[in-house]
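Lay summary. Proteins are chains of building blocks that fold into shapes, and those shapes determine what they do. In this project we predict the shape from the chain. Here is one chain we studied, written as its sequence of building blocks.
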Amino acid sequence: MIKKLSLIFLFIFSAQLVSAQALLDWEDMIQGVNYTTPEGGAELGEFLKPTYSKQMLALEGKEISITGYFLVLEGQKDSFMLSNNPMASCFFCGNGGPETIIELYFDKRPNFFMDDLISVKGILKLNRDDPDHTYYTIEHANGFTIKM
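And here is the predicted shape, written in a compact code that computers can read:
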């Protein structure tokens, strides 16, 4: 009996390792990147060069999962983001920096609404030098709404 239970446990544990994804929270994202302001200060809208933590570098190209608020950029209707804060509470004014938003690229157009609390999984990409995109991106994203 114990041998059977050990085999079942080993099988379940192995299956989880094969399909494992990193479950991240916003503190991981905030602590996962540092950027320096140029001497004399940054210009409004200037892209600050990021330096990523070892944890984030190790997760690049891997499947991650994170929960946040769904945002649709006004006027573009096909540009999506995940945020630590909802748009309704001004997701970027004083409540966080560029490390608190993630660009989302879905394989299939999502059915979420602005400020829906969602859990998303997909492949993490780190942006080192493109000022037209956020520091973090999730490609091949899919997710579900979290009902409160």
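What the prediction tells us: DSSP finds three helices and eight strands in the chain.
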